[in-house]
Amino acid sequence: xxxxxxxxxxxTRPKKTPKDEVPFDRELADLPPQLRWREWMLRVEAxxxxxxxxxxxxxxxxxxxxxxxxxLLIDDLKNDLLGRPYELVTVAGGWQHRxxxxxxxxxxxSQAPVRSPAASLSKTEAAVLTAIAYLQPVxxxxxxxxxxxxxxxxxxxxLRGAGFLGTGPRSPTAGAPYTYVTTKTFLSAFNLNTLRxxxxxxxxEDAGLLSRQxxxxxxxxxxxxxxxxxxxxxxxxxxx
Length: 240
Known about the structure:
The protein is of the alpha+beta class. The chain has 2 domains: 25-102, Orthogonal Bundle (Arc Repressor Mutant, subunit A), CATH 1.10.10; 117-229, Arc Repressor Mutant, subunit A. The protein contains 10 helices and 4 strands, in the order H-H-H-H-E-E-H-H-H-H-E-E-H-H. The chain has a two-stranded antiparallel ribbon. Strand 3 (165-170) and strand 4 (178-182) form a beta hairpin. Helix 2 packs across helix 4 (70-80). The radius of gyration is 25 Å and the shape is elongated. The termini are far apart.
């Protein structure tokens, strides 16, 4: 037997609103144009400031008017930040707040801990990561041949744990081993928008510093991947 009270309660229970249907005033039609634009700028800056990673265009589009030019908003925000020690940069396909490069020596002198995971890479990890960035997709076996010594699973696992590496397609070689590729976290950490922003690979190949057939390689002396922030490491054999 169904009680009337229970039936009524069930019938009047409010429906849950899907996350993407939560009411939000994007258009701000009640505000004068100048205040409306300023509010959109503040919204965009707030989202970028709060985000732990570069913010994509489609994310920012959710908090401003439908026909608003995000590029113009970003340009105005960049102008607002002139004279500040940080700026808005385009990185990893989105936007992010970054400290201006001119203040790098100040931050180093302060010895304050930095947020970039690139600062904690060892020399070996940084060299392996650099090789993968240029040669991806690449297998661990190919990296071993490139360096002339075994590249351990621990080194790969450490780079994956930092978010720099992802799994690529299986190699067509014997055994079909997995390949490794870089991620958006890698682009963000090294201030790159896309992999096309890497230094000219042909120049490195001509100098004999980057080749799948090269027996040895030490790119750290040639690349500007924040080496001043990395820990030095003894040049010792890496256990397989």
